[in-house]
Amino acid sequence: MKAIAPRTLTTLLLTMFVVAAVHAGTLSGTVINRTTGKPAPNVDLDLLSPTQGMTELATAKSDAQGRFFVTKDSIGMAPVLIRATFHDVSFNTFAPPGRPEVEVEVFDISKDPKSITVASHIIIFQPQGDKLVGAEEYAVNNTSQPPAAFFRSEGNFDFAIPENGALGQVTTTTTMGMAVNQASINRGKGRFSIAFPFRPGQTNVRLSYELPYANNSATLKLPASYAGTKMLVVVPPGVTITGDGLTAAGQEQGMMVYTHDPLPAKGALTVSLSGVGLPRAGSDAQGQEGAQEGNSRTGGQEVIAAPSRIDDFKWYLSAGIAALFGMGAILLTRKQVVVASTGDDAVEPPATAKPAKPAKPKKTAAPASAPVGNSISGKSAASAAAVDEQVGVSMDALKDQIFRLELRRQAGTISEDDYAREKAKVDQLLRDLIQG
Fold first, then answer.
1. Which of 249, 274, 299 finishes a domain?
2. Would the pTM count as exceeding 0.70?
3. Distances (CA, A) of 360 to 281, 282, 397
C-alpha cells in the first residue's frame, strides 16, 4: 500500500472540509429494512457524537416512507453515529462528515442458529509476569436468506475459556469497524454466552482473559464451542508452545503462528506453554463514553473505536490485551475516531493480506489564500487537522483489515475466490478514502 503524498493529502483534507462545511447542520436519510427491502416507518433514531463521548446530538423518528430529517448546528462537521431501535434491537449506522444523506439499515430478527457459521478461531497468548493473558477472536458469518439479524435475548453465541481463567471483556465488531462491549452470560465451568444481533455479513467476536502462569509455564485446555472451525494459535517469540496436532505455520507481524485442524463441538486442545516472550510496549489513551447496539432494553453496552494499530500485534497483546479487547485503559479510554462506511457498500472488516505500512499523514492547515469559501474561517487549520487525524486512523484500520484476511487465508478458512473478492473490497475502500 503506497503512502499518500503530502500534497495530495492536503488537497484531500481541504476538499473534505469544504464539503463538510457546506452541509453542516443537516442530516437526512431513509431507514431501510434490508430483510424486506422496504422503508421502515416509525423507527426511533438517536444521533450521537463519537468524537464527543457519545453525546446525544438529536433524536428523530422515521415517517411513513421511512424518511427522517434533522437540523442542528453540531451536525455535519464530524462523524455521527445513528442508533436505530427496531423490534427492541439497536442497529448502528455512521454518517461521515460532509454527507448529509445516509441510509440506515435495520433487519428483521431470526432465532435460527443456522443463520450463522463460525469461519475461524484465533487464540493469542502473552505472558505478563505470573499471569498469562489470553485473547481470542471468532469470525462469525451470517449468510441468511432473506437477510435477517440472528438474535436471542437469552444468549445466541457461545464460547468457552480455559479452566481457571478469569474472563475480561467481550466485544463484537461489525462491518463498520466499531467494537461494542457485550455483557457475558455465565453458563458455568468456563462456558459463557452473549446476546448480540448478528446482522448479515461478518462479525468478529473478541474476548480476553487471564490465567495463572507460575514459573513461566502452564498447561491448559483450549475448548472448542463450534465444530468445523480451524484454529490459529499465536504466541510471541520467546514462548514455546506444544500440543498434539499443533503445526508451526511461520511468522506474521513478528508473532509465531500455529494451526490446528477443526475440533468437534465441545472438544478441547491441550497445549503447554513456557517462556516469557518479548517485552511489550504500552499506549497512550484518552477517555470516552459509549453507546448501545443490540437489545436496547438491556443497556450496559458501549461502542468503542476498533483498535487501529496492528504493528507487531501490540494492539492484540500489550498490557492486558487492552488495545484489542478493551481490557483496561487503552480500549476503554482511547480517543475515538470513527471510520465511516460508504453507505450501501459498507465494507466488512475482511481480514486481508499484509501491506506496506502507510506513511503517517502530516497535519496540514489550509493555505491562507485558498479559495475555500466563507464557511472556512480561522478554524480551518484545526478542522483540517481533525480530518487529517481521521484519515490516518482510517489507514490504520485498513491495515487491521488486510492483516486479518491474511491470517484467514493462511488458516485455510477462506477460498481463493473469496479472498480475491474481499481484497477487492478493501482496495475499493482505499480508493474511496483517497477520493474523500
1. 274
2. no
3. 19, 19, 13
